[in-house]
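Homework help board

Subject: predicted structure for assignment chain

Our instructor gave us this sequence and asked us to write out the predicted structure in token form, then describe one feature. I got the tokens but I'm not sure how to describe them. Can anyone check?
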Amino acid sequence: MILFFISMMIMFFFIALVILILNMLISSKLLKNREKMSPFECGFDPISKSRMPFSIQFFLISLIFLIFDIEITLLIPLVLLMHTFNKMPMLLSLLFLIILIFGLLIEYLEMSIDWKI
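My token output:
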């Protein structure tokens, strides 16, 4: 019985070794030029300059989207908690909303979200 398991293990090892060698032979790349070996960077030419100008408005829009997306995911379970009429979750959600609105007000007063540029 033990001899059978040992022979099966050796057979599986050799099958895996043959598959590995076949994979290496089939997938060998013959032509290695600069463009084929360079990483693909979302459609941009990776050989050109690496620092391209980046719009800060796009960054602000994505940041505001993430903040309010997280806000929604945190406030949705409160709909289920409204049926229990607990005051503590309601007060915490109100505090959370006040902090977010206060942060948005600060950004507005600093003119951080001025889109006229």
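Reply (TA_rk): Your tokens look well-formed. For the description, you could write something like this. Residues 2-26 form the longest helix (25 residues). That's the kind of observation they're looking for.
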